[in-house]
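Bug #77: duplicate submission created two jobs. Keeping one. Sequence:
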Amino acid sequence: MTEAFIIDFAMESMKTTLLVSAPMLGFGLVTGLVVSIFQAVTSIQELTLTFIPKILAVFLALLLFFPWLLHVLLSFTSKILIHFPDYIQ
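Kept job's structure:
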């Protein structure tokens, strides 16, 4: 196990983490922005108005992107398991 391998493995892990979390974070960000603009325009300062739409948006993103997320995670996991004998040497 060399330093290059460890750095490459860490970069691949971080890339997979970012790919998996990006759709939910993006939907939450856009929803939060829309709700904030709505609150500023209407002068409504209700705290629950900010959380409920974000939760629903993240859940919707999870439902929409679940097949792709599953494919990315299974690909990463299979790559790790296939090359496991190479890792322990």
